[in-house]
Amino acid sequence: MEEWIFRVTAVAFPAILAITLHEAAHGFVAWRLGDDTAYRLGRVTFNPLRHIDPLGTVVLPALMYFTTGFVFGWAKPVPVNFGRLNHPRRDMVWVALAGPGTNFLLAVASAVLWGLVDPQNGVAEAWLRAMSEVSILVNVILMVFNLIPLPPLDGGRVAVGVLPNMLAYPLSRVEPYGMLILMGAFFLLPMLGRQIGMDLSVMHWVLGPPVDAVIGFIQTLTGND
């Protein structure tokens, strides 16, 4: 039981922080750039309890981590009225980048913590080491995943904000179907592949190399390589 609690908390805490602070960052930057929608709803806060979706923030990430090693989840989306931003198209890019940027900073902080603790010094430091390892992985995966240039992901909003109109407009029209496309590519295709004896693990092809590259960069940046 103690080992189970150790493992679950070492995964749950960093996963919840990664997902909820990602959303809080969107609301904070939108507020600073002219849209107070999230602020008026009490969502511009780094208190994870204000952003948690029980299924998407707690149950699903933990289940996926222990069964697949991959972490996927969501928090309650922070509402942003892009039309109220000071410069809607430009500021939409900064609002979108705030979430992945927060995940990157959390991963760097976790790597620093990883280098400061020694798991041989007792259970507390062993737990901090385990939690920091999970935090690095979770935050980098969330950052890379959300930077995929497909609306409604953050990378899609960035692409819509920086591409010329002739490309941005048709890309923006994909948004209602974006999550269905991702679910099909990341989950349904691998299931189909197993049935026909082919490796269709699109998730690993798309996320694996950049996740490894970012983790390697963070390790070098923090002196842990």
UniProtKB/TrEMBL annotation:
<comment type="similarity">
    <text>Belongs to the peptidase M50B family.</text>
</comment>
<protein>
    <submittedName>
        <fullName>Site-2 protease family protein</fullName>
    </submittedName>
</protein>
<keyword id="KW-1133">Transmembrane helix</keyword>
<dbReference type="InterPro" id="IPR052348">
    <property type="entry name" value="Metallopeptidase_M50B"/>
</dbReference>
<keyword id="KW-0378">Hydrolase</keyword>
<keyword id="KW-0862">Zinc</keyword>
<feature type="transmembrane region" description="Helical">
    <location>
        <begin position="12"/>
        <end position="34"/>
    </location>
</feature>
<keyword id="KW-0472">Membrane</keyword>
<dbReference type="GO" id="GO:0006508">
    <property type="term" value="P:proteolysis"/>
</dbReference>
<keyword id="KW-0812">Transmembrane</keyword>
<dbReference type="GO" id="GO:0005886">
    <property type="term" value="C:plasma membrane"/>
</dbReference>
<keyword id="KW-0479">Metal-binding</keyword>
<dbReference type="InterPro" id="IPR008915">
    <property type="entry name" value="Peptidase_M50"/>
</dbReference>
<dbReference type="Pfam" id="PF02163">
    <property type="entry name" value="Peptidase_M50"/>
</dbReference>
<dbReference type="GO" id="GO:0008237">
    <property type="term" value="F:metallopeptidase activity"/>
</dbReference>
<feature type="transmembrane region" description="Helical">
    <location>
        <begin position="94"/>
        <end position="114"/>
    </location>
</feature>
<feature type="domain" description="Peptidase M50">
    <location>
        <begin position="124"/>
        <end position="177"/>
    </location>
</feature>
<dbReference type="InterPro" id="IPR044537">
    <property type="entry name" value="Rip2-like"/>
</dbReference>
<keyword id="KW-0645">Protease</keyword>
<feature type="transmembrane region" description="Helical">
    <location>
        <begin position="176"/>
        <end position="193"/>
    </location>
</feature>
<keyword id="KW-0482">Metalloprotease</keyword>
<dbReference type="GO" id="GO:0046872">
    <property type="term" value="F:metal ion binding"/>
</dbReference>
<keyword id="KW-1003">Cell membrane</keyword>
<feature type="transmembrane region" description="Helical">
    <location>
        <begin position="55"/>
        <end position="74"/>
    </location>
</feature>
<feature type="transmembrane region" description="Helical">
    <location>
        <begin position="126"/>
        <end position="148"/>
    </location>
</feature>
